[in-house]
Specification:
Elements lengths: L1 H40 L11 H9 L2 H4 L2 E6 L1 E3 L10 H8 L3 E6 L2 E6 L1 H9 L3 E5 L2 E22 L2 E12 L1 H8 L16 E2 L6 E7 L2 E8 L3
Length: 223
């Protein structure tokens, strides 16, 4: 009887060990499923699918062309060319209303000066002052592009086409110009809503696969 009892106890122990092992496998499998779902939802894709959307978005956002700012050019001194006149360029009126420049009309054209407040405002957005034969000018950053989402990836051999959405992220002067109706391209008004430029509007990146991974070859923007 003692032998039978011992055999029964060993059977229970073996069953319990098998049950615990099976439960551990089930829990491990569930964890992998949840981790995979989370990673897939946030842009990760397994290597056999080619390129992850998250990786494509990072490479596009880091590129020189994508990081290039939207600029306004403000000419100083005597302006005799009609295309630089405060009469034809709304940005001068916006800046003068804000107290950043002064303008006055003379016999030979317009004269534009920057005020101390303007110098401070331009410096705050990293504007650059330069000189050309007609006088000094400021190149003023108004906005930078911001990635919204990658909308699709099409892979053909070692080339990949990535469509994406982006929007302008404006600084203080960008908001000033937009509300003054200077730039339709910025599409920012009193509501604070920024237009999103969709991949359907030809925002496309072309990647080529090399031995060390995907490299960005070209970018095409709506704006």
């Amino acid at each position: 009887m003692e032998a039978a009892a011992q055999q029964q106890e060993e059977s229970k122990t073996t069953y319990t060990s098998m049950s615990n092992g099976a439960m551990a496998l089930i829990l491990g499998a569930l964890c992998l499923v949840f981790v995979g779902m989370f990673a897939f939802a946030y842009g990760w894709r397994p290597s056999f699918m080619g390129m992850a959307r998250g990786v494509a978005a990072e490479k596009i956002s880091a590129s020189f062309d994508f990081r290039a700012s939207k600029l306004a050019v403000i000419h100083l001194g005597n302006l005799q060319k009609w295309d630089r006149s405060p009469e034809t360029q709304n940005e001068y009126a916006a800046l003068e209303k804000a107290g950043f420049i002064t303008t006055r009309k003379g016999r030979s054209g317009w004269h534009v000066d920057v005020t101390p407040a303007g110098e401070k405002a331009f410096q705050a957005v990293d504007a650059t002052r330069d000189h050309e034969k007609d006088g000094d000018y400021f190149a003023i950053p108004l906005a930078t592009r911001e990635m919204v989402r990658v909308t699709g990836i099409s892979i053909n051999g070692n080339l990949a086409q990535v469509d994406f959405d982006w929007k302008w992220k404006m600084n203080s002067l960008g908001l000033l110009f937009a509300t003054a109706d200077y730039s339709v391209e910025l599409r920012e008004r009193e509501t604070g809503n920024t237009a999103i430029y969709s991949g359907d509007e030809f925002n496309t990146a072309i990647f080529k696969k090399w031995d060390d991974g995907w490299r960005l070859q070209s970018l095409n923007f709506t704006q």
